[in-house]
Specification:
313 residues, Rossmann fold, Alpha-Beta Plaits, six-stranded mixed β-sheet, 11 helices, binds adenosine-5'-triphosphate, transport, ABC_transporter_ATP-binding, nucleotide-binding
Length: 313
């Protein structure tokens, strides 16, 4: 039994299908990424998957239970951090964590959790006074305090600077180490590539690919690019005939060879064999950004947001 199973999920607003036949399964203990541009249908899918929105069609199971018919069972098993959290502004960190703890039959000690998430110093600070990073850590605390089997984290690191974001990644990996299944919604490629065991790439309400990060990158054709300057005439066909080579082009005086396999070794050996001196050798390995572009036809959004430590909620 998977942690989450979604089959043929559909949801429309005003006649527009924003989730248009989504199938996916999240396995126990994995960090499963839901990746896509703004408006791709990620939040709607995730909220339908855990019973926070009612789908128009399709089947959803959370640990084998129907999130609408067995609402209480699902609520006790799932901790959710949503993009828009409406928390009581004048309550303090510890008051909020204790309040959320009271919703669950079993749960973690609020004091210990607050310390573990580095919120000890602000435990008595009101929610409205927290920095962006502190607020995000509080939202993780609220998602975890019920000792969930599944944590749903939606755009957790949006609005954080890169060091705060990296700190958050450590917390998410820590959850997986404790056996919690994590469903992570993001539009940051680097975050998805680094953290996720598997990723569903969303575009216009559909899953266009579902695979490991390496598997997705592999779909771009194995994913390497070698460029260099040749200082003697070079017959392009010498390169195109090499194993793994998919394309050879010339850009700004540089020869660019792309493809898969052991591209660098093959190209270097061929240049030696044919006595072509070359300089400015550079290699570039494909990233999830390349895979995303190839799969959706869209450039990924910003890799990193600069410096803002305002509340990203
Ligand atoms: N309650 C609603 N009423 C009308 N339209 C909605 C509603 N909720 C979402 N939408 C629309 O559905 C589409 C998908 O929204 P959704 O929030 O699922 O996207 P997303 O991929 O999570 O985007 P983002 O990264 O911006 O959060 C968007 O065009 C959004 O405007």
């Amino acid at each position: 039994m998977a942690a989450i199973e979604v089959e043929g999920l559909r949801k429309s607003y005003g006649g527009r299908a924003v989730v248009d036949g989504v199938d996916l399964a999240v396995e126990h203990g994995e960090i499963f990424g839901v990746l896509g541009r703004n408006g791709a249908g990620k939040t709607t899918t995730v909220e339908c998957a855990v019973g926070l929105r009612r789908p128009d069609g399709g089947r959803v199971r959370v640990f084998g239970a129907d999130p609408h018919r067995e609402r209480d069972r699902v609520r006790q098993a799932v901790g959710v951090q949503l993009q828009q959290t409406h928390l009581h502004m004048s309550l303090t960190v510890i008051e909020l964590v204790r309040m959320y703890r009271s919703f669950y039959a079993d749960g973690l000690d609020p004091e210990g959790l607050v310390e573990r998430l580095g919120l000890g110093e602000v435990r008595d600070t009101r929610y409205e006074k927290l920095s962006g990073g502190e607020g995000q850590r509080l939202s993780i605390a609220l998602a975890l305090v019920g000792r969930p089997r599944l944590a749903v984290l939606d755009e957790l690191t949006t609005g954080l600077d890169s060091s705060a974001r990296r700190g958050m990644w450590g917390l998410i990996e820590g959850m997986r180490d404790e056996g919690i299944t994590v469903l992570l919604v993001t539009h940051f490629m680097e975050e998805a590539e680094r953290l996720c065991d598997r990723i569903a790439v969303f575009d216009a309400g559909r899953v266009v690919a579902l695979d490991t990060p390496a598997g997705l990158i592999g779909r771009t054709g194995g994913g390497a690019e070698v460029s260099f300057r040749a200082h003697a005439p070079l017959d392009r066909s010498l390169l195109t005939a090499l194993p793994g080579v998919e394309e050879v082009s010339v850009r700004g005086g540089e020869v660019v060879v792309s493809g898969g396999g052991d591209l660098v070794k093959e190209v270097a050996a061929a240049l030696m064999r044919h006595g072509v001196p070359a300089t400015d050798f550079r290699t570039r390995t494909a990233t999830l950004d390349d895979a995303f572009l190839a799969l959706t036809g869209h450039q990924p959004e910003e890799r990193d947001e600069q410096g803002s430590d305002e509340k990203g909620r």
